[in-house]
């Protein structure tokens, strides 16, 4: 591979103080000039901890206990004080996951961008810095006029905020840039634009980029090489082609199987179990409890670095046997569910328009949800998907025009105006389980609440129903005493689904329920919802910006743009023969492998 090595990480070790429990260990990697290295793995794998360590930064309670981080021959971990401030943002820069939280809400965009240049004394004069600022904005395809630069962060869209964060990171032409899941909450079109910007700038300026993500599909067309991390250790590092066509570690293969397939030729497969957290990692290979290739040696010894060569390394005792197995050999194509148009309408929306204050956000929308079917609402952020879903659920508290019927009965606009039976029938699962679950209540209290509202059960009957709801979402009763903050994101979302199912609804509205989850957890949640639909006859309205997920769960799809449905039909028809230019654009922007 051409290009000079810019970043070298040697045996990086990070622990929790004062216990000394390992977070990351034996992390070694290199990135060359103009190269993008994708660092992938599930939550709690240690990706972000490694990423921030490259700037000699750790969250409270963590400590860098060993190793070296060399940038242009300088060991960042040996620096302190003024030298470290000079390096951060000048030699090596960082793009955070949530730009809205990292930008100062009280300072105008132009001022924040100029502060970066002034802090690192970039440019010989004020006019030179102004010229560089205009150049930065052009690089990330944002306007540099006075009106735009005087805006505050909250006056920008999510995509614009993330582009400002990228501009700040590239401002002083650093040698290394670290990107920590910068597109997780963005729709596919905005994500595609941000990824294209990052790739172009890295190549143009010869920047070595580390792109942290849990989604291999995101780095499929961005990264030159990929490093797979599990439980604080790198388990496989290789070229993009190696990882996608002949990966050698069972975990890498399971991550690939968990990625939604836009074509529908491959089934979506979750990874059973969850990644062990620091302090509870087993001896030997940490992936052994979830691995189909496990042998006794895996349980006691962690394998050394091995593989076909220096460009493709793996840590697995059985990597030769894994590599000999064809990729995707155990994955069957997604089952096609035939659509029957004669089915009864369970929800009928006709001529619906909705407002936020005086602003009209939905324009004459018509949609029908059939019994025992799932319709996916897809589109960019701001297209009106969630507004439509909230109108159906009775959660939109502004002006609504048009008709919303449930089995030919007109629904009250506000959920409080609907009778108890109707509220029980239509249940809503929110995007973020972090904010939708009461942090001061245990799982038992959370699940018993809808049972008290909708049913007159005895104490023993309530306990049985709670246990059954947990069983439906593949959780056991040991979680009943836990609070939400004691659970992983995937477990929280399962509890949120269980709470909705406890009411025994016939209509389930899922609002971006997988957008913040690992691909492995996302796959398990989608598998779960599809299974529940089959077993209980649920009708589902599934809101998502991820078109690739649609194949795995929905029979129909409605594509929304600027408050209107621009195309609707069966999943096969819309995805294989899209008629609207907007649908074709969404499909082209959807990351695939």
Q: Could you describe the 3D structure shown?
A:
This protein has 593 residues and is of the alpha/beta class. The chain is built from 22 helices and 22 strands. The strands form four sheets. Strands 6-7-8-3-9-10-12-11 form an eight-stranded mixed sheet, sandwiched between helices. A six-stranded mixed sheet has the order 18-19-20-15-21-22, with helices on both faces. It has a four-stranded antiparallel sheet with strand order 2-1-4-5, covered by helices on one side. A hairpin with a 2-residue loop joins β16 and β17. It is globular, with a radius of gyration of 25 Å. The two termini are 23 Å apart. Residues 331-337 have low confidence and may be disordered.
The gist of it:
The chain has 593 residues and is an alpha/beta fold.
Question: Could you say which overall geometry the principal axes of the C-alpha atoms support?
Answer: globular
What is the spatial order of strands in the main beta sheet? 6-7-8-3-9-10-12-11
- Overall average pLDDT: 89
Helix content percent band: 25-40%
**Major β-sheet annotation:** 8 strands, mixed
Query: How many strands in all?
Result: 22
The secondary structure category is alpha/beta
Output the number of helix runs.
Answer: 22
How much of the residues is beta strand, in percent?
Answer: 15-25%
Regions with little confidence, pLDDT below 50 for 5+ residues: 331-337
Measured between the Cα atoms of the first and last residue, the distance is 23 Å
Rg (CA only): 25 Å
């Amino acid at each position: 591979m051409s290009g000079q090595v810019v970043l070298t990480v040697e045996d990086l070790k990070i622990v929790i103080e004062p216990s000394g429990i390992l977070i990351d260990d034996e992390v070694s990697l290199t990135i060359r000039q103009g190269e993008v290295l994708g660092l992938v793995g599930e939550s709690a794998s240690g990706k972000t901890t490694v990423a921030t360590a490259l700037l000699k930064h750790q969250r409270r309670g963590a400590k860098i206990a060993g190793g070296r981080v060399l940038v242009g021959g300088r060991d960042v971990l040996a620096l302190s004080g003024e030298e470290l401030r000079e390096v951060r943002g000048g030699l090596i820069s960082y793009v955070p996951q949530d730009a809205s939280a990292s930008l100062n809400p009280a300072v105008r965009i132009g001022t924040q961008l100029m502060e970066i240049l002034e802090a690192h004394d970039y440019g010989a004069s004020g006019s030179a810095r102004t010229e560089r600022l205009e150049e930065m904005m052009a690089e990330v395809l944002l306007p540099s006029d006075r009106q735009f630069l005087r805006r505050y962060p909250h006056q920008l869209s999510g995509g614009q905020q993330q582009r400002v964060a990228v501009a700040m990171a590239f401002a002083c032409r650093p040698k290394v840039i670290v990107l920590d899941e910068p597109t997780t909450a963005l729709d596919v079109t905005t994500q595609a634009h941000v990824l294209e910007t990052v790739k172009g700038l890295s190549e143009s300026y010869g920047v070595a980029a580390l792109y942290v993500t849990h989604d291999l599909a995101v780095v499929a067309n961005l990264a030159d090489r990929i490093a797979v991390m599990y439980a604080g250790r790198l388990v496989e590092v290789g070229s993009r082609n190696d990882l996608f066509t002949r990966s050698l570690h069972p975990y890498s293969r399971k991550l690939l199987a968990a990625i939604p397939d836009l074509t529908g030729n491959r089934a979506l497969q979750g990874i059973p179990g969850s990644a062990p957290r620091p302090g509870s990692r087993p001896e030997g290979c940490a992936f052994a409890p979830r691995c189909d290739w496990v042998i006794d040696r895996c349980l006691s010894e962690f394998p050394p670095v091995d593989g076909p060569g220096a460009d493709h390394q793996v840590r697995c005792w059985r990597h030769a046997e894994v590599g000999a197995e064809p990729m995707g050999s155990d994955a069957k194509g997604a089952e096609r569910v035939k659509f029957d148009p004669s089915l009864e309408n369970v929800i009928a929306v006709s001529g619906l328009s909705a407002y936020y204050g005086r602003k009209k956000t939905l324009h004459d929308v018509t949609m029908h949800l059939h019994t025992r079917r799932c319709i996916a609402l897809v589109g960019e952020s701001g297209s009106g998907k969630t507004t439509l879903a909230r109108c159906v659920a009775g959660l939109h508290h502004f002006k609504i025009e048009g008709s919303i019927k449930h089995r030919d009965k007109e629904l009250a606009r506000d959920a409080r105006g609907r009778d108890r039976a109707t509220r029980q029938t239509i249940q809503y699962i929110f995007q973020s389980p972090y904010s939708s679950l009461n942090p001061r209540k245990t799982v038992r209290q959370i699940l018993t609440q809808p049972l008290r509202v909708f049913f007159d059960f005895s104490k023993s009957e309530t306990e049985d129903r709670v246990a059954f709801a947990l069983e439906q979402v593949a959780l056991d009763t040991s979680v009943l005493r836990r609070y939400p903050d004691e659970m992983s994101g995937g477990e929280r979302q399962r509890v949120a689904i269980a709470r909705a199912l406890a009411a025994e609804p016939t209509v389930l509205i899922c609002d971006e329920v997988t957008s913040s989850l690992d691909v492995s957890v996302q796959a398990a949640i989608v598998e779960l919802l599809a299974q529940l639909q089959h077993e209980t006859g649920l009708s589902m309205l599934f809101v998502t910006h991820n078109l690739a997920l649609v194949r795995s769960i929905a029979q129909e799809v409605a594509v929304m743009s600027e408050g209107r449905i621009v195309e609707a039909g069966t999943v096969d028809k819309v995805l294989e023969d899209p008629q609207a230019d907007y649908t074709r654009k969404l499909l082209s922007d959807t990351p695939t492998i």
